[in-house]
Amino acid sequence: MEKIIDVQHLSFGYDEDTLTIDDISFSIEKGSYTTILGHNGSGKSTIAKLLMGLLEKKSGEIVIGGIPLTEETLNQVRSQIGIVFQNPDNQFIGATVRDDIAFGLENNCVDPALMDDIINEYAKKVNMYEFLDHEPTKLSGGQKQRVAIAGILAMSPSIIILDEATSMLDPKGRNEINALVHQLNKDKNMTIVSITHDIEEAALSDYVILLSDGHIVDEGRPEEVLMKKEEIESLALDIPFAYKISHGLQKMGISITEQIDREKLVNELCRLHLKK
C-alpha cells in the first residue's frame, strides 16, 4: 500500500528542556482511517499541528504525499490537508455560515457556478442547511463544529485530520459526523487521521497508533491494540464497550468471541439466541 504520511524520528518540545514528542516514527497508508489515540497531554494534538506545519519540529522528517515538509513546501503540503480542531472558533472567517463554507472553495478556485450546490450539499450532510444565513459567532459550540467540518469536507482534501473534532457534539451528533467521515473515507478514498481519546471511535478505524507521554507505546489493527486490557487501562483510557461485554460473557462460560465491534457482537448474540 502507498504511504501518504511518513514520519521518521520526529521530536518536538515547547521548551528547551522537555520533549513533548520524543523520537517517534509511523506511517499512514493512503485511503486508510487511522486513529492516534491517547490520554489528554499525551502529545497527540501536537502531532496534528506538526503535520500541518503549524509547529516547527526539533528533529526528524515529515513527508506528506511524497513531499518532505519544509518551509519551502509548506503551502504545497497544506493544500493536501484539511484539519478540524477541537475548538472551531479560530477557524471562522465568513460573516455567515454560507460565507464560511465558501471561503475554502474560493481559495481553491472552484467554479462559482458550482459553489452553491457544494455548499448546500455539505451543509445538509452536517445538518446545518437551515443555518446557512446565520452568523457563525451566534451558533452553539456543537453547531460551530458542524460548520467547521462542513467547510473542510466541501474542499475534498486528500487528507482530513480531526483533532478531537467531535468532542463538542452530543452523542447523536458525534455518531452522525463519524458516520459521514467514514462514508467519505470509503466513497472518495479520503485518508482520515483522527486524533482522539475516544476508544469507541478508535475501535472503528483501520489502524490505531497508541500514544503516551510523547512516545508510541503500541500500534496495529484495533483488535490487536484495544483488547490489551492492562495496557489500555494503564494509560488512563477506557476499554471498548463490546470488549467489556464479550469478555464478561466469556468469563461466565458463554461461548462467544472476544471483540471490540458492537455490531458484530450484537449479531453474534442474536445467532446464539436463535440456536436456543
Textual characterization of the structure:
It is found in: Cell membrane. The chain has 276 residues and is α/β, with parallel strands linked by helices. The protein is built from eleven helices and ten strands. The chain has helices spanning 44-51, 74-78, 97-107, 112-125, 141-154, 171-187, 199-203, 222-225, 229-234, 241-251, 262-275, and strands at 3-12, 21-29, 33-37, 59-64, 67-68, 81-84, 159-163, 191-196, 207-212, 215-220. The strands form two sheets. The chain has a six-stranded mixed beta sheet, sandwiched between helices. Strand 7 (159-163), helix 6 and strand 8 form a beta-alpha-beta unit. Helix 3 (97-107) packs across helix 4 (112-125), helix 3 runs parallel beside helix 5 (141-154) and helix 4 crosses helix 5. The model has no long low-confidence stretch (mean pLDDT 90).
Fraction of residues in helix: 25-40%
Mean pLDDT across all amino acids: 90
Quickly count the helices: 11
Order of helices and strands: EEEHEEHEHHHEHEHEEHHHH
Strand content: 15-25%
Uncertain runs with pLDDT below 50, 5 residues or more? none
- What radius of gyration results from the CA coordinates? 20 Å
Give the termini separation: 44 Å
* Shape designation: globular
| Largest β-sheet summary | 6 strands, mixed
Count of extended strands: 10
Domain ABC transporter: 5-238
Organism: Massilimicrobiota timonensis
Family: Belongs to the ABC transporter superfamily.
Membrane topology: Peripheral membrane protein
